[in-house]
Amino acid sequence: MKIAFLIIVLLHGFIHLFGFVKGFELREVKALTLPISKTMGVFWLTATILFLTYGVLHLLDSQYAWLIGFNAIILSQVLIVLFWKDAKFGTIPNIIILTVSVVSFGYYHFQKIIEHETVQLLNKNLNIENRTLNESNLSNLPDPVKKWLKNSGVIGKPFISYGKVSQIAEMQMKPEQDNWMTAKAIQYTTIDNPAFIWSVDVKMNSLLSFQGRDKFDDGKGEMLIKMNSLFEIVNERGEKLDEGTLQRYLGEMVWFPSLALSPYIIWEQIDANTAKATMTYKGTTGSGTFYFNSNGDVTEFSALRYLGNEKDSKRYNWEMNILDYKTFEGIKVPAKMTSTWKLDDKDWTWLKLEVTDIKYNENAGH
Fold it and tell me: What single DSSP character describes residue 159?
């Protein structure tokens, strides 16, 4: 689809050369019956250059391709109107290119919003104390949590204040959905002031995609989803979302093991390989249970979470099952996992997630 669109742009751009050729009388152009001055010929040439530039920038996924596209379309359409008798059919490719440029602008604008929110979130956590996590810090934790932290490799390393997690994923939006949609996501998480912002780009097919942003900040959760970055389909806030987002933050402790020492978390040991964590932050409280194997690895996290944010939304058991581990910056963390809702009539695994990179503290810059 991208190559087909590039061909349309290039052909449309080259067609504008006919106006330049006729304006400068380089050769006869029978398709153009109206007279064209040299000045207008320069404008036709400029349109060609703009379209060719736009095509290359779009192919390279430049965030500013839309800007060149808009200028090319405006100039082209003005010329088409002035020479309507000969050039009117050029309006059709202009509409196609305008549609793509508008979508590109929507994506650019959406990413700028996320960038601004990310800067705000990280600015609350710029003062990193030069603290090292020692074994003595673990004295008040349940035995399976101590074993996990020792096994993860965080002992002797700095406390994690914030981090950036890069992800790829497959997703489903509804339990009855059969196909999987591919996605790329970036998450920034802060520890001292508990918060995260997660942005995801999901491809539904060659024409449709949606961009989402989940956020937890000041104890409140937010969810925003836009189709093709333009049309808002979800914009949710509320107490149920606050609780569920906090529980998600709690479960993602597996990527930031020193979060286990947060003063906002109370631990309860269930048995030799199980511990429950309850977190309270700025009026929002949520709990979840961590399951460990005999080696000290986390194998599962489960929480009783609200599915949805409506008045009649109910809590269901939500499980994060860990399939594989990797080591990032010397810390062993889950790298492959699935997320499953245990519904009344079926288990719905809606997410298959892989972590491709994690940066901690000073390396987490966006």
Answer: P
State the pTM of this model: 0.89
Which sign does the torsion angle of CA 251, 125, 151, 335 carry?
Answer: positive
CA distances from 341 to 212, 232, 319 (A): 20, 25, 6
Tally: H helices and E strands in the chain: 8, 13
The angle formed by the CA atoms of residues 329, 130 and 330, to the nearest 5 degrees, is: 10
The phi-psi region of residue 235 (left if phi > 0; otherwise alpha if psi is between -120 and 50; otherwise beta) is: beta
* CB atoms near residue 312 (< 10 Å): 5
Burial (CB count within 10 angstroms: exposed 0-12, middle 13-18, buried 19+), residue 279: buried
The answer to whether 295 and 304 are in contact (CB under 8 A) is no
Position 365 scores a pLDDT of 46
Name the nearest CA neighbour of 78 among 40, 26, 116: 40
Which tokens sit at 41? 């010929």
Helix (H) or strand (E) holding 73: helix 65-82
Residue of 358, 128, 351 lying closest to 254 (CA atoms): 358
Buried (b) or exposed (e) across 34-54, using 16+ Cβ within 10 A? eebeeebbebbbbbbebbbbb
| Dihedral angle sign, alpha carbons of residues 254, 260, 262, 263 | positive
Would you state the torsion angle of the CA atoms of residues 25, 27, 30, 33, taken in this order, to the nearest 10 degrees? 0
CB atoms within 10 A of CB 114: 20
Write out the residue limits of the CATH 2.50.20.10 domain(s) in the chain.
Answer: 131-364
Dist CA 40 CA 204 (whole Å): 43
166-218 confidence digits (pLDDT tens): 999 999 989 998 899 999 999 999 999 999 999 999 998 877 899 999 999 99
| Nearest C-alpha neighbor of 247 from the set 212, 284, 293 | 284
Rounded Cα–Cα distance for residues 86 and 289 (Å) = 71
Rounded mean pLDDT of the chain? 94
Own/partner pairs, 285-290, CB within 8 angstroms, 24+ separation: 285/243, 285/246, 286/243, 286/244, 286/246, 286/247, 286/250, 287/247, 287/250, 288/247, 288/250, 288/251, 290/144, 290/145, 290/148, 290/253
Superfamily of domain 131-364: Lipoprotein localisation LolA/LolB/LppX (2.50.20.10)
